[in-house]
Amino acid sequence: DNFFVESLKDTVDVHKKLTNEGESLVCGSCETKSGAETFCTECGDFLCDECVAIHRRIKVTRGHQVISAEQL
């Protein structure tokens, strides 16, 4: 697939989640479906505080850029 098209689609999906009034963001990583405060730009997942802490400790995801949902 075309990288640009896929990237654009991912961006639109994130925008839809952020602008969907009445719905809170939920963590896409854990089963608790806790409220998500951050977003991993590499994985494309919203993360709760507990999962962000784990994300930053695991060797494979340690270098990922994690930003607050407000920055999106």
TrEMBL record:
Pfam family, one: zf-B_box
GO MF terms, alphabetically ordered: zinc ion binding
Record domain B box-type: where: 22-69
InterPro entries: TRIM45/56/19-like, Znf_B-box, Znf_FYVE_PHD
Keyword line: Metal-binding, Zinc, Zinc-finger
PANTHER family: BONUS, ISOFORM C-RELATED, TRANSCRIPTION INTERMEDIARY FACTOR 1-BETA
Name under which the protein is recorded: B box-type domain-containing protein
Species name: Branchiostoma floridae
